[in-house]
Amino acid sequence: MSDYRSLKSVDPVVYQAIADERARQNFGLELIASENFVSRAVLEATGSVLTNKYAEGYPGRRYYGGCEYADVVERLAIDRAKQLFGAEHANVQPHSGTSANMSVYFAVLKPGDKLMGLDLACGGHLTHGHRLSYSGRDFQVVAYGVDRETERIDYDAVEALARAERPKLIVCGASAYSRIIDFARFRAIADQVGALLMADIAHIAGLVAAGLHPSPVPHCHFVTTTTHKTLRGPRGGLVMCQEAFAKEIDRSVFPGIQGGPLMHVIAAKAVALGEAQTEEWRQYQAQIVANAARLAGRLIGLGFRIVSGGTDNHLLLLDVAKAGLTGKVAEKVLEEAGMTVNKNTIPFDPNPPLVASGVRIGVAAVTTRGMKEPEMDQIGDLIAEALRAPEDGAALAGARAKVRELCGRFPLYDALM
Ligand code: DSN
What we know:
binds D-serine; 16 helices; 2 domains; seven-stranded mixed beta sheet; alpha/beta; four-stranded antiparallel beta sheet; Aspartate Aminotransferase, domain 1; Aspartate Aminotransferase, domain 2; 13% strand
């Protein structure tokens, strides 16, 4: 049954789809705030023979034989995560951010317990208590929002709500929020009402690791993240906690909510977490922050409105209603012009999420390609060009040609083409 034929010869249809996707990534501007391009080393580990291995349990305590090399990569990933974030305990097995969050909830909450998180419409995440997610179905949810004027979290309002509702767990962190999150203030609020505190840093993990955003680790009982956004690792999750909760979290991940870990992905997490310990990587994170600020400034200069007036991190929310569009239309128009973004609600959005009044724009992926401030100006101009001519096919084709030329100057996965 051994089969060493290439993918191309075994399954040309799948091969072609992957080749087309590689070309799409190479010749388009990836501006989805939650996406990034991994290094060749991370890609190699993700595609490695570790995909074949069952390793239920934890290093040194497995339910299967033959786990000696699985143990090597998992121990490395754990140690590097702890070192990078200064965490007391790390579990690198969650398959995703959603699983990481679930592992915390199931460790410390019972069905019906009260959970408080940022409203999805104000930049939160489905797993922070949205009614269509397990988090909103199994727990009683209290949502906090942002201030209507500043479009930033109003910590006094969060405090008042927490005092009135007395949640068992407060979740801070976001998927579409461009400002610094005050984790120390959240901890003070949690302490006042006897709540546990979890930070979901899926979006800003790279910035936190590089010291460009205050760390939640000293303040939070639990910190969850994905590994594939600014952190630039493989698609997956990670949960960190104080030592006192280590056993509960480990039990909650396995056997609580998952079976066998994805050892190839864990190996790739180890590689990414190793890459993140270098000075070069810290400079890359600083460039992400500089690029986002530059792009926001350029768009504001071109007359666009950015939610909260700018950004402190890797993303910005562009209010396209002010430009006479919906998020849905803007996403499509930008795609025609070769730029991938996602429609996103803005605070107090009158439109539903599938229409929305904004688009979320992130710069981690384009920064990975080596783009800097001059390219951010060019991207801002291209966004404006497209959004100002949403029905002009020739104008969009013109923008698309410029996008292709720009991408050609910053090749991606060159050696793999
Ligand atoms: N889907 C991710 C994002 O785009 O932010 C969060 O899960």
